[in-house]
Design goal:
The chain folds into two domains: 140 residues, Rossmann fold, CATH 3.40.50.2300; 145 residues, 2-Layer Sandwich (Heat Shock Protein 90), CATH 3.30.565. With 401 residues, the protein is α/β, with parallel strands linked by helices. The strands form four sheets. A five-stranded parallel beta sheet has the order 2-1-3-6-7, with helices on both faces. The longest helix has 96 residues. A hairpin with a 2-residue loop joins strand 4 and strand 5. The chain is built from nine helices and 13 strands.
């Protein structure tokens, strides 16, 4: 695109820069007189007489060129071609004393803006105004076309980028679909394994429990056999829970009784060699299920810490509830793990999760109307807090089945 300074109409108060190729001083003065009389803009006219001066003047392009057709050693058509080569949109008007009709038509066909006979100079000012207006319109049109082409190029580039991103998204979607299918297959295999393993374990556990009960009757109440029987009952319950969870079912079977939660925690402490200096505290709950909860939490804590000496049990009363805590001094549970630590099948090395143990514990606590949370232990470690409804005085006379 050419410089817009060359073809725009002059602003109000701005002079029209005109280059006049003319060898006659008198003819030049007549041209200037008509322009100054009939144009609304002030003008500045530079007169040159030969080719060399004309080409030099083109180094500072004007708004308009006026040229005689026939000059000594040069001609208007050659001057037009020289100007057009440099500035295609620059208006060029031939002002001549005589020109045949055929020659005039030929000059216009080659691109000259207009021609004016010197004996009809009253036509010069309107021709100049028209030439400048047409040049400005042509320049504006070319500028708009360039902007449209630039916009099209930008849009094309953006469309290519959109296509590229769409291809990336499609490939990513395909990878995610493959990963989702693989994950689904893995979960199905895991569920199948749990179901089959649970079925396989139920038979020997049932037999073991039967043998222990018979041995207890024959031994007349041996504490060791009773402890073994209690552990076998807990294992049987755990296997049944695993079977339920593998089918996508919730652990909901709880049998509520008056029970001593402190005694239960001390028993778990003895079984696993951890400190449990807790008071007696009566609540309403399922002793077997709550034992399962604290066994899961304690075994997780011991596995994470590597030693039962770093794990302890605490029990305290709060307004309207009791809180039993499994406190460990291990590596703790990272913040990004806490929201998903109780999810089914989540196995976190940092969290000490066995995949289902914490899920079962949470469901059992929820079935008791309580909640299970994990917080950081002051000084390092993790504390699993089990909060259960406290036993109100009014509940002493109620019967729980």
């Amino acid at each position: 695109m050419t410089d817009p300074q060359l073809t725009r109409l002059p602003a109000p108060g701005e002079s029209i820069q005109i280059l006049h190729l003319e060898d006659s001083e008198l003819d030049h003065e007549l041209v200037v007189m008509h322009l100054e009389t009939d144009l609304t803009w002030p003008i500045e006219v530079q007169r040159v007489e030969d080719e060399a001066a004309f080409l030099e003047a083109l180094e500072q392009p004007p708004h308009l060129i006026l040229s005689d057709f026939a000059l000594p050693g040069y001609d208007g058509l050659s001057a037009f071609k020289a100007a057009y080569t440099r500035y295609p949109n620059l208006p060029f008007i031939i002002v001549t004393g005589a020109m045949g009709e055929e020659v005039a038509v030929d000059t216009l066909r080659q691109g000259v803006t207009d021609y004016i006979l010197k004996q009809r100079l009253e036509r010069l000012a309107p021709s100049v105004r028209r030439a400048l207006s047409e040049a400005e319109a042509r320049e504006s049109r070319e500028r708009a076309e360039l902007e449209v082409r630039a916009l099209n190029a930008t849009l094309q580039a953006r469309l290519l980028e959109v296509e590229r991103l769409r291809g990336v998204a499609e490939r990513q979607s395909q990878r995610l679909e493959v990963q989702a299918r693989q994950l689904e297959e893995a979960l199905n295999l895991q569920k199948t394994f749990l179901a089959e393993t649970s079925h396989e374990l139920r038979t020997p556990l049932t037999s073991l429990l039967g043998y222990l009960r018979r041995a207890d009757r024959e031994a007349g109440g041996s504490q060791v056999i009773q402890d073994a029987q209690r552990v076998a009952e807990n294992m049987t319950r755990l296997v049944n829970d695993l079977l339920q969870l593998s089918r996508g079912e919730l652990v909901q079977s709880v049998e509520m009784h008056f029970m001593n939660l402190g005694k239960l925690l001390r028993q778990v402490g003895r079984d696993y060699g951890i400190r449990a200096d807790v008071p007696d505290m009566e609540i309403v709950g399922d002793p077997g299920r709550l034992n399962q909860v604290f066994v899961n939490l304690v075994t997780n804590a011991i596995r994470v810490c590597g030693s039962p000496d770093l794990v302890s049990l605490e029990l305290r009363e709060r307004p309207g509830e009791v809180e039993a805590c499994v406190v460990d001094r291990g590596p703790g549970v990272p913040d990004h793990v806490k929201p998903k630590i109780f999810d089914k099948f989540y196995r976190g090395k940092e969290a000490g999760s066995a995949g289902l143990g914490l899920t079962i514990a949470q469901q059992v606590v929820t079935a008791h109307g309580g909640r299970l949370d994990v917080q950081d232990t002051p000084g390092g470690g993790a504390t699993f807090s089990v909060r259960l409804p406290a036993l109100d005085a009014e509940e002493d006379d109620e019967v729980f089945a």
